[in-house]
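TODO from last week: model Repeat domain-containing protein.
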Amino acid sequence: MSETPPLKRRRGLGRAAAATATAVAAAALLAAPGTASAQDAVDCSALGSLPSADGLAAALRIATACDVEVRLEAESSPYATTYVTPQWQLRYVGTAGPVQGDSAGETADPVLVESGDALVVDGTPWPVGLSRTDTDGPLLTDGAAALDWVGEQPVPEYSGTTATYGELTPGLDLTVEAGVSTTQLRFTVDGPEAWDALASGLTVSSDIGTFSRFPGLFSVLTYGDFGTHPHIGALTPFKIRDADGTGLTVRVHQTSNGSETVVLWPPTQPIADLAFPLAVTTEWISVNRQVNEWGAVTSAAQTLPIYRGGAGLDEPYFTAAGEAGDLVVGPYCDLLADPECTEVHEAAGYWDFEVPGRTTLNPAGAAWLNYPLVSATFSIDAAAGAECVAPDLSATSVDGYHAGHVWKYRDTEGSPAASGECIDGTAVYDITGPIPDPSSFNLAMLGSEETARFDGGSARLEVVRDIRGLDFKGAAQRVCSTGTALTAYSNDATPQYGGFKVDDWDGLTAALDLSWTATFRDDTGATALATAPRDLVLGTTTPFYSPEAPLPDGRYEVTYTFTSADGAFTHTPMPCSIAVDTAAPEVVVLDVDDRQRYVGEEFEVTVEVADDGFPADWRYLTLHCLYSGCEIEGSSETLTVRFTDESTATFPVTLESTGLELPVSLYDKANNQDLASVSVPATYSRNDFDGDGHQDLMAVREADGHMLFHAGNGDGTFDAGVSKGAGWGGVDAAMAGDLNGDGRADLLGRDTRTGSLYLYPGNGAGGWSTRVLISAGWNTTGAFTSGADVNRDGRADLLAVKQSDGRLYSYPGKGDGTFGTGTAIASGWGGFDAVTAAGDLDEDGYDDLLARDARTGGHYLYFGNGSGFGDRVAVPAGLDGTGTDRYRQVTPVGDVDGDNAEDLVAIDSRTGELELHSLRGDGTALHEGETVATGWGGSRLASAADDRTYDYTGDGNSDVLARRGSDGKLYVYNGNGSTGFGPIGTWGIDLKGLTLLETAGDFDGDGFADLLGRDSGGILYLYRGDGTGGYDPARRLRIGSGWNGMSAVVSGQDFDSDGFADIVGRDQATGYLWLYPGRGDGTIGAKVQFSTGWNGMREITSPGDLDHDGHADVIGIRSSNDCMYFYGGKGDGTLKAGVQVSCNWTGYDQVAAVGDFDGDGHGDWIARRVADGRVYLYQGTGTGGFTTRITLVTGWTWANAIA
């Protein structure tokens, strides 16, 4: 039988202070709590037979000091007592009935006492108030809610635990029976009218609670003064028993009108058919964590809840049904439902215990305490006179049992918990293992083969739990990680352990005199390392230790165990984990797709990685792309690739520069690292005019001034040209990249007539939209280019050589098609007749510049440095080292052959072939030049170059040659780029016997200005200039004989638009002008009639393209009127009709072309006044005429030839 102490009667709450005297005395005995010496201050002899304490720390101190169990006062009630043992354990004793004593050994004894105008149930922790003399007050209150009658309550008669209210309304009386946690209300109903009054006459209200719904209950949930745990006050279902013994259960309905009205539904049997008077019962119950509950359900009365054995009868239900005891489990005869016992019914029992948990037990500052279950035992006594039977015990749902449970819940709840055995008439169950939550025990016996008859209120639960825990603060997660995520990795085979800290708790931890050990277990659970015990020093971080022998690579669980000196206390905090990984990962493959790439594009990188043991659930690798082009859009973070299951991956990279050496770093979790990189060559896409991904080429057809679009094919070749419009003969054009920021390639064009610079916005279809004026005044510059980002601001800039000072200027692009103010970034550039943006050839992130030195004919590569250009290297002759410098037109075109290297195209000035070249970053050839097209001699590439037809010294300025008649010495007068001369050089007297001297331009295609000379025998020679103001007599080239028949010879210009300088001669006999087409190598082709009727003209010369229509023109003085006439060239080997320019040219000779002598962008010429030898400069206007003449030099009567 149960050893629960017997019930002791009649102790009021007013005498409760005496019951706590022992606890107060115990607390007074604890001196200086929180210190190690506090235990020594406990006077064990003064504790008495039932020692108790208010808190866990105080209870532990008494228990360990005095070797006694100490009652934990805050966690004890009439239904449950919690003890603290000397072994650092908690022992919980819970009973289904309120039979346990307090710290003085007295049990709860509810009794009604007067308190003001109310009655109060005294002698219980859960007092209830009843109305007494205040007939308008609530009928019942419990601190959380109030149950009220709609009318006035009569003054009750009361005695002991019973109060009687006569005539709530005619025919309706009420008897209240007070209990420890249950107050029964029994209504006597004399007739239907009284029933109707009861059915809607009760209300429930609460100022601090909320109405909640449990099946069958009318309940109020509140926290209120009950702390953090909920308290429920509830009405159980109403039970009806009529005068004939018929029993019914009435459903309750709630309606709200400020308070909740308790509406009793009509019972299943009409009220009029029942035998009056009716006994109608319900209970107001208090439900909280310190009130254990029990009850039963039966198939004999399936809608009837049997709470604590009662069902509204004068005796327990099963007793009234003819059974022994107040609880039956299994089959039985229910004489209430079936007096003849013709049917076997089933019954089931329930118990609900709640053991104190961490939230209620843990003192402030000791939230780390845990209470692992040691044992749990459930027992219940067989009913008096009944044989003990132990049905299987089940664990029910987390919500557990409540007073509204009826038969239908039996079939849906419960899982096996334990089998029991009968010991001395008591069914005993060991439920240590099956209960998942050691703080909530919801138990049930759902059935039995044999009928089990119990004393339901004798059920008892005893739970023993260890008090375990230390104020333990583990080492950093990087040292040893807790939780599910493994974050601690070591690339050292002797990983650190320790580094934790344990603080003292209220002097109790120090008294344990603890030591500690560490155990490493691998994934199989085998012990890899077990350390010897070390003394624990409280309040100090433990030093780090390392194993003496290395551990194999793998994952380890590290368990720290703390043990007291006497061995009675052991504690193991949550284990932590560490992985030992000493093997470095490897980037096995790092590769990019083999295709053409442009800066700004995205490409994919393929990577394959490897590592010992990879992949595994704890081994994963992380690859970091160490390049800004890997940045995640909208973030400054670079791309990270994590390898968990697969060893290969691809990731995108945006090219931000040419010549990328893409670096990556591969890490494992232990920070072992491998570095790798892959070269990613790329170029800028600046010349894709039609948006097909290939670089294209623009060129002007000299014959008609049409701009031709040559679509690139991506293999180094171009399609035949498609005209995109005429009028480009007088425009210096340059392929400029995207100047206005619309993503399309544009053109720059300088109108040579006006000197205005225009933007031709690309339309993405190989053409452009309406041109836009950028600014005027650009005729004062020579060569210019665009497309290079000189200052690294992401916008294409403009570079130009200014003729006035020979400096290279940079005009920063604004990204909208305009440019900022130019800044001189280098001097000494007057000798360069061509500059072109070459892309980033050395792949250092800065654009480079290709320039041609007119003095040597050589090309130089200037390396960008972010603010201009620094070092330079000479480009091999012929661009590839295989020939001479024979290219006057060279322009970078980007990567046209798909090898991710910048390419150049050049027109061979001798053959007219279009050649493809590529340069390395050091200026050397990537491959030999490749002819990709022929017949390009009559084309002008869209790259603006300076006309050096008359520049013999290579300084960028037009010069004048004059021979002294007295000795035949030929002088070279260096033009200063304005209206005068600089230093004077000489070719000596070797040419004194020549009968004619004439400027020839670059007649042999070597890039230098040459001179034509005719000897007395009529042989015409080419004297080849060296670009420095001299010539090599040994390199004289014979052109042909019979030239004495020509009374005038003109050269230096391309009249038939084939790209080569021609010769024009006047036949003295016929007056015809004959065109001798130059071949670009110093020879001529068969003559072609150019014009007729020229015997009446003198001082015939060709100053170049005077009207800026792209074709070379001719001027001459008509002898009959001494007027000068302008003959515009057509570009096809013929001339337009002459137009009179000016007259009064009497007394002038030696009219000679000098090109743009004054640097204003227009062709000029000079003439000598015979009378005094004064030489005048006639500055061209760009329309075929000239402005007011200016004196260039005086006293040149000595000269017998001027060119």
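Done. Confidence is low (pLDDT under 50) at residues 1-39.
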